[in-house]
Each structure stands twice: as structure tokens, then as C-alpha cells.
Design goal:
Elements lengths: L1 H9 L1 H20 L10 H4 L2 E6 L4 E5 H10 L10 E2 L7 E4 L3 H22 L9
Antiparallel strand pairs: 1-2, 1-4, 3-4
Length: 129
């Protein structure tokens, strides 16, 4: 270890070069903005989505909050049945803007929900023989 320290002390420009490279990697990491195709990209999750309910009311909320509401819902995720309005038991709503993207997102959430339910489902109990 002392040999490495002496070698670096004799050549300080190498240490400065490593610091500069590390700094460039950090700056690149923070400025690249993340993967645009990532469904959990912060830029995507902060986009506003409008939901129009059967009773005529509308609600605009960030996409991330809508996903959280869908995950916390006790019923299975199904866009054809609509999204349950908070505080009610029978008023359902449907997203208004960019239906194709919402349909893809809901299908992804549905697949993740099904995988989670399969993974947490207890194994069947066999009767004693």
C-alpha cells in the first residue's frame, strides 16, 4: 500500500485526472435525464392526466399519483371497468388524454399486479394422508 501511495505522490497529475473523470461521470449521470422509455421515469410520472367520471366531474392529477391509487385499490386493475372515484363505491371514471399510452400503462400495471398476486399467493394446503 505504501508503494502505491509513493507512486501516486510522485505523479499527482494521475490523481487529478481520476478526479476529473469521476466528476465528468457524475455530471453526465445527472444531466442525461434518465431513460425516456422507462415507465418509472420521473418526467413521465409527473405528467398530468385527466379522469372524467360518470357523474360528470373531472379530476386532474399526476400520473404517478394515479398509479399509486391503482396499486392501492383492493380490486383488480382493469381499464374496461374504469377507475373508482375516491370516497365513492360506484362512480367510475376513464382517462381522457392519450388513451393509447394509458392503455399500455394500465396493461403493464395489470401484468405487474398479476405477477405480484401469484408471487404472494400461499401454496395450497394438502389434506393429511
Amino acid at each position: 500500500m505504501n508503494a502505491l501511495r509513493e507512486w501516486m505522490n510522485a505523479r499527482p497529475w494521475i490523481a487529478w485526472l481520476l478526479v476529473l473523470l469521476l466528476g465528468l461521470v457524475v455530471v453526465w449521470q445527472f444531466t442525461r435525464g434518465g431513460d425516456a422509455d422507462d415507465p418509472y421515469n420521473l418526467g413521465r410520472l409527473s405528467q398530468s392526466v385527466t379522469i372524467k367520471y360518470d357523474d360528470g366531474s373531472e379530476e386532474t392529477l399526476p400520473l404517478g399519483r394515479l398509479e399509486k391509487r391503482l396499486w392501492e385499490s383492493p380490486e383488480r386493475i382493469d381499464l374496461s371497468r374504469g377507475i373508482l372515484k375516491p370516497g365513492t363505491t360506484n362512480v367510475r371514471g376513464f382517462p381522457v388524454n392519450d388513451l393509447k399510452e394509458m392503455e399500455d400503462r394500465i396493461n403493464r400495471l395489470k401484468a405487474e399486479d398479476e405477477a405480484r398476486r401469484r408471487a404472494t399467493k400461499p401454496p395450497p394446503v394438502r389434506p393429511p394422508q
